[in-house]
TrEMBL record:
Name by which UniProt lists this protein: Phosphomannomutase
An example molecular function term from Gene Ontology annotations: phosphopentomutase activity
Composition bias, Low complexity: 651-676
Keyword field: Isomerase, Magnesium, Metal-binding, Signal
GO cellular component annotations of the record: nucleus
Domain Alpha-D-phosphohexomutase alpha/beta/alpha residue range list: 108-248, 282-388
GO terms under biological process: carbohydrate metabolic process; purine ribonucleoside salvage
Keyword Isomerase among record annotations: yes
Signal peptide: 1-18
Region called Disordered, residue ranges: 30-60, 641-682
UniProt feature, compositional bias: Polar residues: 45-60
Length: 745
């Protein structure tokens, strides 16, 4: 087993051995200095993608800027075919006009393209912005591939069921037509993975997908795939963004925008989705089909499309795999861009979003039609998958699987299928890839395989980065089986061809594999359920518990000084310990729980550092435009030893007068001792800002080597949750920096 990360364990161990821990009493969330325990992280100014105006352009007075913004708004309203947007221009206040149509009003074109709220303005998503983006994309493709190739091979254009998605897709097609570029505008809503697949299958120069994935209903987006089916690189995104800004002021291009409003969008030629779908279905079945018999009495599957596009396509794929028909969540299966039954159409939000699907599943159980149910949930553009299970015979409670848990189950399943095929040569290396914020358990699974040679690779979050690594690993002696990230994105490798069917995350293919795996587990006496298989893997490789969530950030500009203060305090020897007060346990006061930060991965700067050691460069390139750090933590021994002493001192005799009672009986309640992290537990906490939303995300994983009982997991999860909350309060101080807690997972 190998990995792309080189954390220099020898140096880390030497640094930890040099630590001299001070056992003096600490005030919660305050720490003392550690002269020999400072983290010597590189300090200095970091540009985290915040705007700096260095163009040297003249600064307009407010009056001149407002006059220019009014002229821009008037021109925009004349060009915009979405009348709801055009009408809103008249009601904009002066400050809104400056914000949306002023000199600095523009959108950032990232590696995922554009994703913003819809509305009038050059910093929101609308038809005019889509026109400008498409012109810039065509200009870049012409420079790199040539106009002849571009006009011959053309562009594939798809769209989801969000409000105005079809209009935006038509606008992109109109721009292609005006440049004599061939285009294939699909004739109905499609999943995003189908466009990524179609670009390669049809040998297109690029693919455009109009979608905002799992964002709120007010959003839409413009996603771009290159000819290899991958999302664009950061360098390409920067070039396209520069073109958008330069061409926006061109008189010739402005005239083209004015002419656009007169186009008959409905008369554009369309390409049938059917041919593309049949090619996709055939490829997925060839690569991922596992023949077996299915017993609906043991298990039934419930699916929710969350008002997206998945249902029509997944139902057909179930039939192609000879799987029993799933039960739909009736209120959520039809495409509806208003998403009326969910606050946000994001399956990562857990029970709040899966509520109707879980209720549908519970009705099946009450009707005695099955012994257990599994819920599969796709997001609106069907590139993500969430899984939940209710198996009353083994666990009376719902279990909503974390993205890492699903990833580990997929990895195990893919290895089983490779072994069954029996055609792999001993020299072939099976490759697993996940992100640095995803579970370390994937590495343990890969390392302990004896029948197959396996390699584990980690890279930065974001499926674009992971897929670039995956494509680079596609060689005759290597076979990529799985690429995943904890945010419910999965790409499953071809079991027979050794190549990935889709070079992006694919919630449709993931759902079909999850269904096969679920039926296998529920028909297998050894496992009995998906949870049973997961417990078996925990006993074999150790327990890995995840706890993730996010903090809403009002102003991203506050994050740069916040992260810099963290580095400075660590470098000066502060915040070596942070504490959380548990109050009382077992009827007696307990000392505050202490957590020791042993080392830090500073992904922003590109260094790994342990106490008392010089920083060691990481093999992955720095991420200077992202706030991104990982902290490796262990709980202090002091609290654990005190808790053990207290338990030994608890009286064992029963109360006088009633020898039949025990201390744990209801009539003699005793407050349980606070759960404690085991001595061998390792905790990793990562902070990273989102690239598409105003969120500071946190990811954590607790690894316990020895694990045998399901009952232990709840206690350990409480300890994990407490450690994460204490860490956030000590390091980030949300109340002082305008951060608000969002959903935890």
């Amino acid at each position: 087993m190998s990995t792309l990360l080189i954390p220099a364990f020898a140096i880390a161990v030497a640094g930890l051995a040099a630590l001299r821990w001070n056992t003096a009493k600490q005030v919660p969330h305050q720490v003392g200095r550690r002269p020999n325990g400072a983290l010597r992280l590189p300090l200095g100014e970091t540009n985290n993608g915040e705007a700096n105006d260095r163009s040297g352009s003249p600064v307009l007075s407010r009056q001149d800027a407002l006059q220019q913004a009014r002229a821009e708004a008037s021109a925009y309203a004349a060009q915009e075919p979405v009348q709801a947007f055009a009408r809103k221009v008249r009601s904009l206040r002066p400050e809104d006009l400056l914000d949306r149509f002023g000199p600095s009003a523009s959108l950032h074109f990232g590696t995922a393209g554009l994703r913003e709220p819809m509305g009038p303005g050059y910093n929101l998503l609308n038809t005019v912005v889509v026109v400008r983006a498409t012109r810039a994309v065509l200009g870049h493709l012409a420079d790199t591939l040539g106009w002849e190739a571009l006009r011959t091979r053309g562009i594939l254009i798809g769209y989801d069921a969000r409000q105005h998605s079809e209009t935006f897709a038509q606008a992109a097609a109109v721009v292609c037509a005006s440049h004599q570029v061939a285009f294939a505008l699909l004739d109905r809503v499609v999943p995003t993975p189908l466009v990524a697949f179609g670009v390669v299958q049809q040998q297109r120069c690029a693919g455009i997908m109009i979608t905002a994935s799992h964002n709120p209903k007010e959003y839409n987006g413009y996603k771009l795939y290159m000819e290899n089916g991958l999302q664009i690189s950061a360098a390409v995104a920067k070039q396209i963004e520069a073109r958008m800004r330069s061409e926006a002021s061109s008189p010739r291009e402005r005239q083209a925008e004015l002419l656009f409003a007169t186009k008959e969008l409905a008369s554009l030629p369309r390409q049938s989705v059917e041919t593309l779908w049949q090619a996709y279905e055939q490829r997925i079945r060839h690569e991922l089909y596992a023949p077996m018999r299915f017993d609906s009495a043991r298990l039934q599957i419930v699916h929710t499309a969350l008002h997206g596009v998945a249902d029509d396509y997944l139902r057909r794929l179930f039939a192609a795999f000879a799987l029993p028909t799933y039960t739909p969540t009736a209120a959520q299966q039809s495409p509806d861009g208003d998403f009326p039954t969910v606050p946000v159409p994001n399956p990562e939000e857990g029970a709040a979003v899966l509520r109707l699907a879980m209720q549908t599943a519970e009705q099946l159980l009450r009707s005695n039609k099955t012994n257990a149910v599994v819920v599969l949930a796709n997001d609106p553009d069907a590139d993500r998958l969430a899984v939940a299970e209710l198996a009353p015979q083994t666990n009376p409670r719902w279990h909503i699987f974390h993205g890492d848990e699903v990833g580990i189950l997929f990895a195990w399943w893919m290895l089983q299928q490779v072994e069954k095929l029996g055609k792999q040569r001993a020299s072939t290396e099976m490759v697993f890839i996940n992100s640095v914020v995803s579970s370390q358990m994937l590495g343990a699974l890969a390392e302990h395989q004896h029948k197959l040679r396996c390699r584990w690779i980690q890279h930065y979050p974001g499926f674009k980065w992971l897929m670039e690594v995956a494509v680079a690993q596609t060689r005759p002696q290597q076979q990529v089986l799985l690429v995943y990230e904890e945010a419910l994105g999965y790409a499953l490798g071809g079991l027979r061809s050794g190549t990935l069917p889709v070079n992006d995350k694919d919630g449709i293919a993931a759902a079909i594999v999850a269904a096969q795996l679920a039926y296998f587990c529920h028909q297998n006496r050894t496992y009995g359920s998906l949870q049973g298989l997961l417990e078996s893997l925990y006993r074999q490789y150790g327990l890995y518990l995840q706890h993730s969530g996010y903090l809403r950030c009002r102003d991203f500009r506050t994050l740069t000084p916040l992260f810099e203060r963290i580095r400075q305090r660590l470098a000066s020897g502060e915040l070596v310990l942070f504490t959380a007060d548990d109050g009382c346990g077992g009827g007696k006061p307990l000392p505050p729980r202490r957590y020791q930060i042993q080392s830090v991965y500073d992904w922003t700067r590109g260094y790994y550092c342990a106490y008392g050691c010089e920083p060691v460069p990481l093999s992955l390139p720095p991420q200077p435009k992202t706030h991104f750090m990982t902290f490796c933590i262990r709980e202090s021994d002091e609290h654990r030893l005190s808790l053990q002493r207290q338990r030994r001192q608890q009286p064992r005799q029963t109360p006088s007068g009633d020898r039949s009672r025990t201390p744990s009986s209801p009539s003699t309640p005793m407050k349980p001792a606070s759960p404690s992290l085991p001595a061998d537990a390792d905790l990793r906490i990562t902070l990273r800002n989102s690239g598409t939303e105003r969120k500071l995300k946190f990811y954590s994983e607790l690894h316990v080597t020895r694990y045998s009982r399901l009952e232990d997991r709840d206690e350990l999860r409480k300890a994990l949750d407490r450690a994460v909350r204490a860490f956030i309060e000590a390091f980030l101080q949300p109340g002082l920096h305008g951060l608000e807690y969002g959903t935890d997972r």
